[in-house]
Amino acid sequence: MIKDRYNSAFMQDPSSSTSLEYLQVAREGAYTASSVCGCNTRKYHGLLVVPQPQIDGEEHVLLSALEETLSCNGEVYHFGAHRYPGAYYPEGFRYIRGFTAGRVLEWTYEANGCLFRKALALEDEKNRLMIRYTLLEAPGPVTLRLLPLLAFRNKHHVGGFNGHLHPAVQSAASGVQIRYPVYTPLYLQLSGGSVFFASPEWFYNVEYPLERDRGYTFHEDLNAPGFFELKLARGETIILSAGLQEEDPSGFREAFNSMVPETAKPSGLKEHLLRARRHFLVKMGDEMVIKAGYYWFGSWARDTCISLPGLTLTDGDTGTFRAVVSTLAARLKGGLLPNAGIGEAALYNTADASLWLVYAIQQYAAGQGAAAVWETYGDMLASILYHYRQGTMFNIGADDDGLISAAAEGYALTWMDAVVDGVPVTPRAGKPVEINALWYNAVCFCLEAAALAGDKGFVREWEAWPEKIRASFVAVYWNEDRKYLADNVFGTMQDWSVRPNQVFAVSLPYSPLTPAMQESVLNKVRKELLTPRGLRTLSPSDERYRGAYGGDQRTRDHAYHQGTVWPWLLGHFADAYARVYQETALPLLEAIFQGMEPALQEYCLHTVAEVCDGDAPHRSGGAVSQAWSVAELLRLADTVERLKKGYRRFQLTVHK
Fold first, then answer.
1. Which residues contact 460 (CB under 8 A, 6 or more apart)?
2. 3-state SS, residue 65
3. What are phi and psi of 264, to 5 degrees?
4. CA-based nearest residue to 233, from 59, 116, 346
């Protein structure tokens, strides 16, 4: 059972309540995030973090936190929490009696007879945060003070004191408008009677310990322009709205209530994953994109294409699928998708993103029909194959043997892309095994779709290629004595590192391997790489293996693909295992899926992290919520359900 309630013992202990995070994301790109006790432990945390397209297109922390103070019978209680050098102040977590996580987050505080509840939600369509405060019990008159702490800076950086820069504070309906140069104004408004007292001050040396652990600057100064103050009676409720446009306070209650779900809260792992998928489907102007992860990743083509089937098709969201593909299609150049960046800043240093796009469309075709899909996307698919065959940027192209080679000095062109001091940590220049598994699958699928659509010209041009690629693949990667696949081939040099990339030669719908080879490869992967949280990126028997992921960026990068576990690989392991073992695969795959439940409540609530340690207990790390981790676990769930129904989707497919 995945927890959504936490008691006072957990919440009042900062060692536990600051180590678990929450994250909510609006479809328009804003997010709110912190530790569950409300103490920001990262520079990426904030009550309202919103895109600023007029500045740099990235998210910026506008409202970092709120200092909430309750005064009753001459006593003052501070419910906020911050970390300063050597201490927490105030220690508002000491008053928390309970916390509930869901579409709305709720904290209950108790102090000397005052019972107080705070509920927080992020509105999807307006990039607006709303917080509802309710005084449940009180021994006498109560005064609530709300003091906003402002950052107004890019999420990747921290701000410092600037005596020459003060926000312009102007009145708004039941609140204030706060303006910084070049920024979208921030509106802070209340639903009831309150007074704003302008009283500018700075809070110095707020500390973000997780940034310290990651080797970055970890102190920040925050600006407080003033505070709201109002009286609350027992049973009374007040709602704060923080957004980018002025709202009518009379509609706050209705707006907040509309965010409280009427449907039953998610109970199982898959239901939580389906809710978490919303983190990544984001509108950027008129475009729909997939954000790779939180908090520091953007919309990256490889991550997008790998995540796309799981985030959309597992929930029947074909409209979003098509919208994302439309965005990707507009960015194709020379058959390649940009690894990162947009427009003039786009960098096309990825050998596999376009091939993953073909795979995503192949999954879409399973429900829509390959012929219809070819009619819609055939020109784009043919262009991708043509450019890979003829050669394109970064020396990506087919050799005489029909296999794709990719090499550019100083670049890591596959998903194992860590580079330190200009040198790839995992050198894979040449013919990486998964690139050519994807290439074989892409050519076979396009031939299948073109044939069904009656595109005889495409079929004539490509019909000899599958056998050419298949024969070369086996000759280049398979070793009869070792019984597994080389990870990479560069000239006559074969890299026999035991890595998970070989699993794609078994998992993809078209496999170049015989059934016996597939079983042997899969057994090697299961024996040396499979963990309860995903596949290791390198066998522990290898002297280069790193069993823990952490430290500064240099240390993390050296471990990133040298043993670190990646949950997203479980989706393709499941496809491969189901193909080889059919219905007998169900017990293991079901156990793996259900075994992921603890991962949704140990790092960031109700979502899945980017990576885990290679060594047990496989602690979560990296980005707190990763698109392809969530997406591929949703596909794993579908694989389990299909096997339960006896759906034999995983027969060996050989192109003829």
1. none
2. strand
3. -65, 145
4. 116
For residue 208 the two structure tokens come to: 């973000």
* Alpha carbons 288 and 28: distance in angstroms, whole number: 10
For 595, half-sphere exposure in the C-beta direction (CA atoms, 13 angstrom radius) is 15
Neighbours of 582 (CB within 10 A): 15
Contacts of 250 (CB under 8 A, 6+ apart): 191
Gap between the Cα atoms of 133 and 239, Å rounded = 6
Pairing between strand 31-35 and 530-531? unpaired
Which among 568, 574, 548, 428 is positioned nearest to 487, based on CA atoms? 428
The DSSP-derived string for 473-508 is: HHHHHEETTTTEE-SEEETTEEE----GGGGHHHHS
The sign of the CA dihedral 156, 157, 158, 163 is negative
CA 314 to chain centre: 17
**Residues paired with 196 in a beta bridge:** 228
Q: What are phi and psi of 519, to 5 degrees?
A: -65, -40
Provide the 3-class DSSP secondary structure of residue 444.
helix
Looking at 413-488, list the stretches that DSSP marks H as alpha helix, in order from N- to C-terminal side: 433-452, 456-462, 465-477
Q: Which of 79, 78, 70, 81 is nearest to 34 (CA)?
A: 81
Question: Contact 403/439 with Cβ under 8 angstroms?
Answer: yes
Beta strands in 530-594 (DSSP E): 530-531, 534-536, 565-566
* Other CB atoms within 10 Å distance of the CB of residue 455: 19
How far apart are the C-alpha atoms of 383 and 561, rounded to whole Å? 31
Distance of alpha carbon 431 from alpha carbon 408, whole angstroms: 12
Give me the residue label for tokens 């899945």.
608
Q: In angstroms, rounded to a whole number, what is the distance separating the alpha carbons of residues 531 and 227? A: 51
Q: Tokens representing 559? A: 């471990």
Q: Are 307 and 350 in contact (CB under 8 A)?
A: no
Place of tokens 């926000």: 167
DSSP codes joined into one string, 305-338: HHHHHHHHGGGT-HHHHHHHHHHHHTT-BTTB--
Long-range contacts of 336-344 (CB under 8 A, 24+ apart): 336/387, 336/392, 336/393, 336/394, 336/396, 337/301, 337/302, 337/305, 338/301, 339/300, 339/301, 339/302, 339/417, 340/298, 340/300, 340/301, 342/57, 342/299
Tell me the mean pLDDT per 10 residues along the chain, length 656. Answer: 92 97 96 98 98 94 97 94 96 97 95 95 93 95 96 96 82 95 96 89 96 97 96 95 96 92 78 95 93 96 98 96 97 94 86 98 96 98 98 97 96 95 94 98 98 98 98 98 98 96 98 98 98 98 97 96 98 98 96 96 96 97 98 97 76 39
